[in-house]
Amino acid sequence: MSRDAIVKALRPFTSCDVSDALLKLNHPHGGFLSNLTMWSPKRQEGSTKVVGPAYTVKYVRKNHGTDPTLKGHYIDSIPAGSVVFISSPPKIVNAVYGGLMSNRAKYSSAVGTIVDGRVRDLQEHRDLDYPVFARDVGTASPQELLRVSEINVPVRLQSEDQEATIFPGDYLIGDLNGVVCLPKGLAERAIALMASQVEADEKIAKDVQNGRTFQEASKQHRAKVKEVEDL
């Protein structure tokens, strides 16, 4: 499948649906990236969803002299349809993403930005109706402490809860439930599992609403999903 076909196939599904499929493929944590939540266009409210390939941006501390220095500005080379994923070093109070960046990202037809760190200018992102996910908010810009080192390189999630790496071109799915990273090498296999598992869950929900036990309904409908997987 082409990149566009994969994005189109993923759009009807939630981040939880993608995680369920990845768990069946034995991918750690179902691809979930912890502590990244929606801040814009609303705070954990509404039907906003971002789906697209990752365009990664790596910030480093200014005193890391061995890291390369990026020429130009990362915000000017975002491919249309991408999800911008910004990696900040841990234990940084300064924000690494602001309103001017969303103005340019939206102009470039990015579908959203996910910040493994802090963002600022929150109202500006919201006025743009541009999706932003992040760990937290702040007021200070990054210039005093940080610089962009590289773009489109693997970046590690800055988390004490898990180990995860986001590779350029991996598919990022963000909604009210959180953010999931679907490795590009698993995308087609995961998509093949999703429709049948969602259909099964819908049937289970309908059955239990009509008084059937969860155990009975789950045994019947999820068994059919297993049959599909075995084909």
Automatic annotation (TrEMBL):
Organism of this sequence: Cladonia borealis
Protein name in UniProt: Uncharacterized protein
Required cofactor names: Mg(2+)
Annotated substrate binding sites: 98-101, 120
Entry keyword set: Magnesium, Metal-binding
UniProt keyword Zinc present: no
CDD domains according to UniProt: RraA_family (cd16841)
SUPFAM superfamilies hit by this protein: RraA-like (SSF89562)
Gene3D superfamilies xrefs: Ribonuclease E inhibitor RraA/RraA-like
GO molecular function: 4-hydroxy-4-methyl-2-oxoglutarate aldolase activity; metal ion binding; oxaloacetate decarboxylase activity
Binding of Mg(2+), residues: 121
